[in-house]
Each structure stands twice: as C-alpha cells, then as structure tokens.
Automatic annotation (TrEMBL):
Residues 1-30 form the signal peptide. The record marks 155 as: Important for catalytic activity, responsible for pKa modulation of the active site Glu and correct orientation of both the proton donor and substrate. CDD domains: GH43_LbAraf43-like (cd18820). SUPFAM superfamilies: Arabinanase/levansucrase/invertase (SSF75005), Galactose-binding domain-like (SSF49785). Residues 316-325 have a biased composition (Polar residues). It comes from Saccharibacillus brassicae. Belongs to the glycosyl hydrolase 43 family. One of its GO terms (molecular function) is hydrolase activity, hydrolyzing O-glycosyl compounds. One of its GO terms (biological process) is carbohydrate metabolic process. Pfam families: CBM_6, Glyco_hydro_43. Keywords: Glycosidase, Hydrolase, Signal. This is Family 43 glycosylhydrolase.
Length: 471
C-alpha cells in the first residue's frame, strides 16, 4: 500500500557566503529580544519517517522519506537539523521509504526500502560508505538485504545483542497485502541475513486492527540494561489512530524464538495534546548525552493523513527499563531545549515595523499573544531589527502559518539588511496551526534588519528564534 508521501525538499535555503554587517542600520533600534532556553518542538515543518542518530563526533545525522533518493542532514544541534548541511544519495529506485543511517564496525550504512514503481516489489536495500563523514566519500550499493523468502519488506533496522547482529523489519507473510508483520533474522555482516525470518509481532489488539490492512511497522530499538525494547508503529499511518506499541525481550534470551518477545497490550504513545497520529519514531540523546529524546512524525492537523511534520520531545524510563514517552506535548507551549544546546534570542513579529497591508492580530496560540499577517500585497512586509553580540553562522527558526486556499505551500521573501531576497517556505497546515520555517545565515557582530515580505500565496509569522551554530 502506498502509505508514504513524496516530500518537498530543499526548504532551508542558504544565505551563506555573504558577510552581512550593520552598515546603515547602525541607527536602527533592535527589537526587544528575550533570551530563551526553550523552543517550539516542530523541528521540520514537513516530513515523515524521521531517523536521527547522534554520533561520537558530536554531530546529529538525520534522514527521512524524501521520495526517490536518500537525503542526509548533518547538524551540531537537534533543533537546527532542518537548516543543516545536506547531501543527496541516489538509489536508482522509486518510492524510497524510511531510510536509516548507522555506523557499524568503522563504516556508515544506509538501510532503505524501494521499489520499481510497483508497491508489491518493495524490498530492503543497503549502501556502505567508509568515509568518516557520510556526507563525503562514496556510497557503494551493497544490494538487497533479504531472507530466503524474499517477500515484501520495508522499515528495516539493525542492532547487536551479545555480539550478534540482527535485522528487524516489517513485511508480508505471502505475496498479497493482507497485513504487515514484524520479523527478525540474524546477520552475518551488515548487508547479509543468514537465518530464516522469524515472526515476533503481528497486529492483534483492537488499536492495531482498527484499519485495513492491519499494520505493524517502523520498528526501532531501545536497549536499557538487560532489556531490549522494540518500539513499533501500528494502526493506519494515514489516520489519526496511528500510534506506537512496544515489544520487549531480555538480552540474554534467544531473540530468534518468538516466545522470547512480549507485546504490551496498550499503546505507549498516541494522539493527544493537540497532536494527531504520532508514529514512526527514532531515538537520540541531547548534545551533552544527559537526556533521551524521541523524534517522531505526526499529522500536520487533525485528519491530514500522510501530510505530516516532524516533532521531538524528551522521554524518561520506567522502573522495568521500558521507555516512558508520556503524551505528545502541547504544540503551542515551548519546551526546554535539549540539554547542551545553545540558548537563543526570541523576537516577536508584532514588535517589528510593518509596511503595506501587514498588520498585527491577537491570537491566544501565538507565542506573545499576537502575530503578523495580511502580508498580502507586493509592498507589504514586516521588518525586525536584531542585534548579535558575536559574528558567525546563525539559524533563524521561525514560527510560521499558512492556510492558503487549495492547500499549496506559500513563501515569504526573506532578506537581511536590504540584500537579495530568498524564498522562505511555509507549509500549508491551516491558519493559527503553527509550523517551523528555518534559514541559515552568516551575520557580522552588530545590528541587522531582517525583512519578511510578500511571496507566493499567503503566510503569517508569529516570531523567530536566532541562535549561533558556528563561526
């Protein structure tokens, strides 16, 4: 079944390579910035099947479903991932779903599903890169990874237990799409399965079987002490009922024995707090390694199906060494930054200077109780003055909205200090249902004026955070 979406790429346009200075803006009075240690937790305004991995080099490596290729992001911060450096790895296939990137035995590996245009031919594949930086070097196709049945397979992931490597994936029992089952098999190397597949979970509870076809998919591994947790997604990914379930086994058990695995009868993460259809999660740590975070996709709005965004929030652990995700956090309340991320200055759009038809409107879900909209004519804009105490590379992390009729993306024209304007993309998820648009820019120390002007369609801005990520 065609359960994934093709996603809009290239949203974080770059202003790098231009050194910007205060110049004639020295006389401008900077807007009142508030120094913050929190953020709004939509980290990508568009996307599905997120996979984020924090490596020993201090970088986060990220990927998601992008359609016909595998796109990799690399960032020093979780919250800056959307504006991070990227590279595209071609696969030669179609309908590329749920890629993952892993570092195994001194090399990088990408695991991904693809087909030839016919969903029935979806299979898992592997690529290898021996470079220290996976955005560099050469990706070598290691071919398909399959057990002897070579049945339909997606959402593959890998882990080691007691020195043995295992592959876990979602697949069909036969050649027809009756249901998706979770399988495990032993691996002889990172691109080869060397045992029969073993079923460890199938949809059985009401919350797993409330849509057809029934689905268990998106397995992800969390290990705590002697406990192996497989967090998986169930129900219809196209519905608000999509949610996370949990399988557990002991590290010292026979992981190829189905009896070693226990399924929790209830969801461990589901719709709530104004967030719909949370699922297909991955797990990472804060920059200082002190906190555990879940990164997941959710519907952009109630009933939006496969039109999704990517969110993150911290989680804790239960006494039995299973994860405690709680409920999705209120999207209109900022949450503390991942421990070790840089604090940021927050600017409210309503504090800016307005031109044309742009005007301030009050709204309870806006960060300061107000927003700027009606940027509807070519001469309309909002100018916001900022003052940075150190030159370097900055990320602008803006809370934006778009409810343009027809469901299309909109843009604002973003410029700094009167320079060339670039498109600042804003996804369509309804008015007063905020997403996050980002842009990376180089700023000299001192005062600058950032302008958001009329682009394509219609968009509003609530405000933005500005934080330094490099020299």
């Amino acid at each position: 079944m065609n359960r994934k979406t093709w996603l809009k790429g290239g949203l974080a346009l770059m202003l790098l390579g231009t050194t910007l200075s205060g110049g004639s803006y020295e006389a401008a009075q900077a807007a009142s910035a508030q120094t913050k240690n929190d953020f709004y937790n939509v980290i990508m305004q568009d996307g599905a099947d997120p996979f984020m991995y924090r490596h020993a080099d201090g970088y986060y490596y990220f990927t998601k479903t992008t359609g016909g290729n595998v796109t990799l992001w690399r960032s020093k911060t979780m919250t800056g991932i959307d504006a991070a450096e990227t590279t595209v790895v071609e696969t030669g296939g179609q309908n590329v779903w749920a890629p993952e990137i892993h570092r195994i035995d001194g090399a990088w590996y990408i695991y991904y599903a693809k087909d030839d245009g016919d969903n029935a031919n979806h299979r898992m594949y592997v690529m290898q890169n021996k470079s220290l930086n996976p955005l560099k070097g050469t990706w070598v196709d290691k071919g398909p990874i399959a057990d002897s049945t070579n049945r339909w397979a997606i959402d593959g992931t890998v882990f080691k237990a007691r020195g043995i490597s295992y592959f876990v994936w979602s697949g069909w029992e036969g050649t027809e799409n009756v249901r998706q089952v979770l399988y495990i098999a032993r691996m002889s190397n990172p691109w080869t399965i060397d045992s029969p597949r073993v079923e460890i979970a199938r949809p059985e509870y009401q919350w797993e079987t409330n849509h057809s076809p029934n689905v268990n998919e998106g397995p992800q591994i969390l290990v705590k002490g002697n406990q192996i947790n497989i967090v998986y997604s169930a129900s219809g990914s196209w519905t608000d009922d999509y949610s996370l379930g949990l399988l557990t086994a002991k590290n010292n058990s026979d992981l190829l024995d189905p009896a070693s695995w226990t399924k929790r009868p209830d969801q461990v993460f589901k719709t709530g707090g104004g967030v719909y259809g949370p699922g297909h999660a991955s797990f990472t740590e804060s920059p200082d390694g002190q906190e555990d975070w879940i990164v997941y996709h959710a519907a952009k709005r109630q009933g939006s199906g496969w039109d999704r965004e990517i969110r993150t929030q911290p989680f804790s652990w239960n006494a039995d060494k299973t994860p405690n995700f709680g409920s999705p956090l209120d999207p209109n309340q900022p949450i503390p930054l991942p421990s070790g991320e840089p604090q940021r200055d927050r600017y409210e759009a309503e504090d800016g200077r307005l031109g044309g038809t742009a005007k301030v409107s009050q709204h309870a879900d806006s960060s300061g109780g107000a927003k700027v909209g009606y940027i509807d004519t070519p001469e309309s804009y909002v100018d916001i003055d900022v003052d940075v105490d150190k030159g370097g590379t900055y990320i602008l992390y803006a809370r934006t909205g778009n409810g343009t009729a027809g469901g299309n993306w909109s843009t604002l024209k973003l410029s700094v200090d009167g320079g060339p304007a670039s498109d600042f993309f804003v996804t369509n998820q309804g008015w007063d249902n905020w997403g996050t648009s980002t842009q990376k820019m180089t700023l000299d120390k001192g005062k600058h004026t950032i302008r958001f002007a009329k682009g394509d369609g219609y968009a509003e801005i609530d405000g933005f955070d500005l934080f330094r990520v490099g020299k």
